[in-house]
């Protein structure tokens, strides 16, 4: 028995926020002083590093669990299942439901419970819970579903990754241009076909020195309320950490699968930063003495930004539905899913489509 993704769906907000929309922002240094460069130069350098040209923000009337509900409906429809047959709903997010204009996260009840309620699932044995695992949360949720199914504790799970990062950014921090909103959801089930599904996995938390590379901190604008916190990161440390650890995790995962490096058709990696993702893939292939094949890494960050836990399932949804130019999957293709994020957490799984 193997475990496979039988349904996938995503919700991509319609509001496009282009780089030019940040031209009037007041970007500051950490100490509150003004940046020496003009905004057009800051934005141009930002695009060159991250690859982001625009990102998506949700409308003021929606929160994270709303986006997740809509993505889940699509995944359930795609899998053609009865939601009453779900054994688990595993919801990966980081900040809960943060309403437009609010400064407080709402996670009572859990977001997974809210999605179950919206889906009108009556079955009490459908267990709903949230996980906080940084950007790798959706992959970790898939690995948990895999374990439940293989242990006999479940037959079918709904795994969601959703976030509204636009609600927790410091508008005076140029890093705020990275983040976006979105949701991806997947149905995970057992398969009797040993030649498909999850072949191997890898997961790790590095917290000895790395725990606070991503954190909640004060605005760079010292005139704002110091008790209100925003998402912050040590970008250089994260970059160096990712380059050191993600390729090794991917290699370990691939070796466990028994699949040869030349048989890997696609790598779906968390859409954090275009240059960083490219460097990770290049270093991964160098571990095998090879160069990364052209087109091995589909990307969505340039038009969707970084929606944290939602990037990987959304990317997979777009890929298999032919919505990424010059990219496609065929039956039997081997895919590596991988992510890195707050924790610092790293995970991956090798998957035969």
Characteristics of this structure?
single chain, 353 residues, alpha/beta, five-stranded mixed β-sheet, four-stranded mixed β-sheet, 13 strands
Structure, explained:
By secondary structure, the chain is of the alpha/beta class. Helix content is 29%, strand content 25%. The chain is built from eight helices and 13 strands. The longest helix has 23 residues, at 235-257. The protein starts with a strand and ends with a strand.
- Helix-strand sequence: EEHEHEHEHEEEEEHEHHHEE
Strand order of the largest sheet: 1-7-6-4-5
- The total count of strands amounts to 13
**Average residue-wise pLDDT:** 96
Characterize the overall form: globular
Element layout with pairings:
Blueprint: E1 2-11, E2 15-18, H1 39-50, E3 54-57, H2 64-79, E4 88-92, H3 111-118, E5 127-131, H4 137-151, E6 156-164, E7 181-191, E8 197-205, E9 214-217, E10 230-233, H5 235-257, E11 264-269, H6 274-286, H7 301-304, H8 311-320, E12 334-341, E13 345-352
Parallel strand pairs: 4-5, 4-6, 11-12
Antiparallel strand pairs: 1-7, 2-3, 6-7, 8-13, 9-10, 12-13
Helix pairs in contact: 2-3, 5-6
Task: Describe this structure in a few short sentences.
The protein is of the alpha/beta class.
């Amino acid at each position: 028995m193997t475990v496979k993704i039988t349904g996938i769906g995503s919700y991509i907000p319609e509001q496009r926020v282009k780089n030019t929309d940040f031209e009037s922002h007041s970007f500051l240094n950490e100490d509150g002083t003004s940046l020496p460069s003009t905004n057009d130069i800051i934005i141009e350098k930002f695009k060159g590093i991250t690859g982001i040209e625009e990102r998506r923000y949700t409308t003021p009337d929606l929160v994270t669990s709303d986006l997740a509900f809509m993505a889940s409906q699509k995944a359930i429809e795609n899998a053609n299942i009865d939601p009453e047959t779900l054994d688990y709903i595993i919801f990966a997010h980081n900040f809960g439901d943060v309403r437009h204009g609010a400064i407080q996260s709402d996670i009572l009840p859990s977001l997974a419970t809210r999605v179950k309620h919206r889906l009108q699932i009556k079955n009490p044995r459908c267990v709903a819970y949230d996980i906080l695992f940084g950007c790798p949360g959706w992959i970790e949720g898939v690995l948990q579903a895999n374990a439940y199914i293989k242990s006999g504790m479940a037959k079918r799970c709904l795994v969601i990754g959703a976030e509204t990062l636009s609600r927790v950014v410091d508008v005076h921090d140029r890093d705020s241009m990275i983040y976006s909103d979105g949701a991806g959801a997947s149905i995970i089930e057992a398969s009797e076909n040993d030649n498909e599904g999850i072949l191997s996995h890898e997961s790790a938390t590095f917290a000895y020195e790395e725990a606070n590379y991503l954190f909640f901190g004060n605005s760079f604008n010292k005139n704002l309320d110091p008790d209100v916190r925003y998402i912050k990161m040590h970008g250089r440390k994260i970059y160096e950490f990712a380059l050191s650890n993600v390729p090794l995790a991917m290699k370990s995962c691939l070796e466990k699968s028994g699949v040869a490096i030349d048989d890997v058709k696609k790598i779906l990696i968390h859409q954090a930063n275009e240059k960083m993702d490219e460097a990770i893939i290049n270093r991964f292939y160098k571990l095998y003495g090879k160069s990364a094949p052209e087109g091995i890494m589909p990307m969505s960050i340039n038009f969707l930004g970084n929606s944290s836990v939602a990037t990987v399932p959304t990317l997979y949804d777009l890929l298999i539905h032919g919505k990424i130019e010059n990219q496609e999957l065929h039956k039997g293709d081997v895919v590596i899913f991988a992510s890195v994020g707050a924790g610092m957490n790293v995970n991956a799984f090798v998957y035969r489509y």
